[in-house]
Amino acid sequence: MAGRAARYDASGDFPEEDFADLRAAGLLGLMAPEQLGGAGASFADYTDVAIQLGSGAGATALIFNMHASVTGALAHTPDELVRQFGGAEGFFAFRDRVLKGAAEGALYAVAMSERGIGSRLSKVKTSYERTGSGFHISGAKTFVSGAGHADAYLVAARDKHSDEPKISYFLVPAGPGVEVQRTWDSLGMRATTSHDLHLEADVSEDALVGGIEGAALLLAQVMPQWLVASYAAVYVGVAQAVLRHGVEHLRERGLHTLPMVRARLGRADVQVAAAELVVREAARRVTDDPGSPETNRWVWRAKLVAGDTAAEVAFSVLEAAGASATRRGHPLERLYRDARCGALQPATSDVCADWLGASALGDNPDEARW
Amino acid sequence: MAGRAARYDASGDFPEEDFADLRAAGLLGLMAPEQLGGAGASFADYTDVAIQLGSGAGATALIFNMHASVTGALAHTPDELVRQFGGAEGFFAFRDRVLKGAAEGALYAVAMSERGIGSRLSKVKTSYERTGSGFHISGAKTFVSGAGHADAYLVAARDKHSDEPKISYFLVPAGPGVEVQRTWDSLGMRATTSHDLHLEADVSEDALVGGIEGAALLLAQVMPQWLVASYAAVYVGVAQAVLRHGVEHLRERGLHTLPMVRARLGRADVQVAAAELVVREAARRVTDDPGSPETNRWVWRAKLVAGDTAAEVAFSVLEAAGASATRRGHPLERLYRDARCGALQPATSDVCADWLGASALGDNPDEARW
Amino acid sequence: MAGRAARYDASGDFPEEDFADLRAAGLLGLMAPEQLGGAGASFADYTDVAIQLGSGAGATALIFNMHASVTGALAHTPDELVRQFGGAEGFFAFRDRVLKGAAEGALYAVAMSERGIGSRLSKVKTSYERTGSGFHISGAKTFVSGAGHADAYLVAARDKHSDEPKISYFLVPAGPGVEVQRTWDSLGMRATTSHDLHLEADVSEDALVGGIEGAALLLAQVMPQWLVASYAAVYVGVAQAVLRHGVEHLRERGLHTLPMVRARLGRADVQVAAAELVVREAARRVTDDPGSPETNRWVWRAKLVAGDTAAEVAFSVLEAAGASATRRGHPLERLYRDARCGALQPATSDVCADWLGASALGDNPDEARW
Amino acid sequence: MAGRAARYDASGDFPEEDFADLRAAGLLGLMAPEQLGGAGASFADYTDVAIQLGSGAGATALIFNMHASVTGALAHTPDELVRQFGGAEGFFAFRDRVLKGAAEGALYAVAMSERGIGSRLSKVKTSYERTGSGFHISGAKTFVSGAGHADAYLVAARDKHSDEPKISYFLVPAGPGVEVQRTWDSLGMRATTSHDLHLEADVSEDALVGGIEGAALLLAQVMPQWLVASYAAVYVGVAQAVLRHGVEHLRERGLHTLPMVRARLGRADVQVAAAELVVREAARRVTDDPGSPETNRWVWRAKLVAGDTAAEVAFSVLEAAGASATRRGHPLERLYRDARCGALQPATSDVCADWLGASALGDNPDEARW
Description:
Four copies of one chain form a homotetramer.
Chain A: H1 5-11, H2 16-24, H3 43-56, H4 58-76, H5 79-84, H6 88-103, E1 108-111, E2 127-130, E3 134-144, E4 152-159, E5 167-173, E6 178-181, E7 195-204, H7 216-222, H8 224-252, H9 259-288, H10 293-321, H11 331-339, H12 349-360
Parallel strand pairs in A: 1-4, 2-4
Antiparallel strand pairs in A: 2-3, 3-7, 4-5, 6-7
Helix pairs in contact in A: 3-4, 3-8, 3-9, 4-8, 7-8, 8-9, 8-10, 8-11, 9-10, 10-11, 10-12
């Protein structure tokens, strides 16, 4: 995949070959339990895979991350929680169907963001209403990685007829009423094809995730890892790629003995090593103790540190490498652009810092967050 | 020009229309004295123009900077210095011819860099030797902004038959033996068309700048402003553009009241204001007291602070602006890439810091520099 | 003074000898007009003096700054403004009396801050009420530089009987009812003797500054230089001292040729040079065009950049100098502590960044500021 | 101990009470094996203790670190290594004697540094020569934490009669010929009493560590953890204390809801969390796989990240806390000074960055290091 990354970056096309490989390797079923044909991976396992993918092909890793978020969140939603919502029967059937699909090669994408609301779930304008046979969903989504290539989209929408912000999730199959508008042409992570999605879709009753309405906001607080920090592993991989290609370039050019080059690489090395530890610590805690306050702090830390580290390391290593590494086609040129995107993806670094500051200072960091 | 910048950035083409405008406005003669049809501008005047150009169209400003370097260095070389080298007659005729050409619309470019030598003039591998009718110049140059569109190129070359590094300048007309290889396809400043130049050119006797051989290294120390710091003004302009487009974007999106956005913009504002002062102070001193040790310190400061400021401000303001500003075509997306290039252009920021540190610590900063 | 700085830092005593020298040199009358026996200095002149003082003895320079603020603000208050408030007669007599006093060697201090209100003038709790013969002032002040050694204190107090925040200034002579509580024992700038002041003072009618009540908040917006940025020059001086002593130490120890040392010093050099330009630009504008929106932006920039620069440069140069420079008595040890205080003095750097961000983003930065 | 830290900082006295407590708790025997009466701790165990101590009383933790370095390095020197040097018999007896002493309450200090050589072991000027009954050691040491309070000092000295730099270790008992010169009066970590030591001491044969001459340089490369990174844990503790006291101060003052305060605390939180992970990862690897190239990289990373994190976090949190936290006696005032010392202790952060850069770039980082 690393060998194809430059090409997909240049064209901005969906990395078909990468996903053919992932599908063939059974990795679309990574998060599905073994009894449904998957690998039964934990969040820590996912993190391991995502770092490796991100180190080779960042955009591919981000699309994969969205798929893993859908399947992982489903696979790991605690049964008790589902039962609290009185949704057990429907939910379990839904979950098994979706995860079995993934294990068989289906690709899922996430359609959460909308223009002007950032990632504030409670502000979602896409709406749904009941029809005779299910629901009608209407609205527009943005930043939908994998748009046009996914088999179904996880869509956050509000109940059109509720005064309260009642936000529900739907898994909307690609097809009529789901139109991709090719708006994505971006600084970095170009091959994610994160286009806009226009929805005027009629879906059946069982597209409502788990048959439960209004659970979206709660889930965001209970399982922030998939909304907040699953990107983090990808950007650790990107940062590692910066180091790897930086070292290669600097040795080739004979610049590796310059004191300032050494200083830049030394500081970059420790930053990347630290970021990886933070992301893996968060992953380990999500795996062992999901949803606890301390685990959630690590989730936010992971997002902040991974996004900032990738961007800062790319900034500094490109400076060490010099103008010759800014030619298009040079891996550092692409990585410089890719690396900048992590801190900008929600939750942005400034938002993470605010959450963590509130938490450190003893306030409720989730208050008015989503 | 600001309105065309996105288009030229996308295509990577030479900004023909911008140069038609500059030519029409008489700006190619900016540095030529009035008696030769020019504007007789000082370095401070140039700085003023370059900041404004850079604020609208960075790549155009960089090409213009190269032209201004050739014409400005010629126009401002002190007569005494020329006489010291025993080159008065030839030099003054040469100078007048070139500057008159500029005033009439000729565009000059600089062909100094070579692969693997950075900007170390003394390491230049392009060579020259005398022929019956003048000189033969042979070699390859890189990062030649305006390549393919200039009327002549200022080429640094070494005497093929001298054991000492005897480096001379030639003004080589575009034409046979001067071949452009279209290698430029870069992260930022894409419309500079800074392609490679292959030289197997026979030039007449009067192509030797001023009829003086071996003066290149000395000139670098005596007039570092044109080699080191004329870029600086361009990047102050770029940094100002980042602020301007950042404010516009943030107000449009209604993000301007967020405390972290305000903090980022406030700190960017002061950084840009400070960089402009440093660059203008250097320009004022170059104008009033060229070549003095204190003036030269300001020249190196200007280069360091302008390159770093543009890059850092673009980094931070893009983070404030968020993912929506990373779409290609958005001014901040382009400026983010353009702004990164300043610190990488020779003298790089790390080289400037080393020069300034040596100077501050009482050592000779020019020792073994070029 | 530079020679005494270590001693006054160690003891935390008021720098008696320094002020004897300043008095002897006529510098207490710096801001008083010539016809009253002073030097008739502009804000730019003050800045020049303050940089030099700060470079030798930071704490002395800060006390002097407070005195200059009182005398300078009085000397430079535009007559029109006074007339607008209907206070001409009283004000001019008051002003002349105070400035003549300064020219004759009187020292004034400022008693503005109070515990828990930072520098929010509108929150001042110290109150005043009319008595038969003048006013009674009651309250407690903190961070009163020069406390115990000033001849009179400029005190901000609120009208005890007004519901609106009606804040007025009084010049309260040292004496009965003005008690110094020796609380100052600080990380840095130790010799400022910025103790607490307890006030239960009866003052005569003419202690009310200019005979005008309720003008304090307006003055803060109209002449922010004395509240916001007169510190700035002192910290530029401190930053210059860091460079000077850093170079001396590094050469003595033979560390000046280490590449990382050179890089640190080079970057520090340019930061200090830039900060000085910003502070002098602000001073020039205050002198030429006081109170204009653009001038005020420079005032806030000056405060931000000077405080941050001093602290950052001291941080980095101490790191270059190494553990041997952390012994008490070493100038870098003291300067490291002194330099940290600038950004913490109101307006703090974070407050300045917020003000500048609001201004850059087109909002009213003074809204709800004081 | 946390309760006493302010007092010992103010006086600069050795923390007698803290060491009485440590002795009573058996912690002086922490690194001694259980069969000799100790706790048989690993490097990871030590790290745990040092973080906790550092979080309460940094100076005490640093003295303890020196003691742990002596006892830990002895306890963990691999038997094979000793045998390679042909020193088994003598070494094992020596080791047992020293460790048993520690378990019984003896305190050891390290006397390695000398003026003007930093921590370059090969440059040591203190010399030794054989006498009839043992050795005579002559020279001067600096930065000897615990000087005047240790029972014996680990002294690095060179063979006076060898042309090669043959550096050996001696354990020199306090007593005649070992004179403490009270030079320590420092910015931070004041209670370490890191005074100078003047040596004109006659020691018996068995003071030569392990009976082996010339092993010092090799040991530095084989077991860098005790020379390079055992400080690191202390500074993680210091950084944690900064957070703890910062939160306490900010809540008390009601500043905890300010956005910039939250942002500072959030970023500090993640920096401290990351530093702790790096230090613990290094400790885990030293414990499980001591001396391997990958382990040693983590050792250098730990030193760099801990020193920088403590200093940067203290810098930022003090700025959040404001001027009221700069009064002497306030924990943040002390921590600000203490925290600055980590990056300056050898190996300094710049040296660590250079080592890590060389290693990342594929060069031998230990070449010409000691």
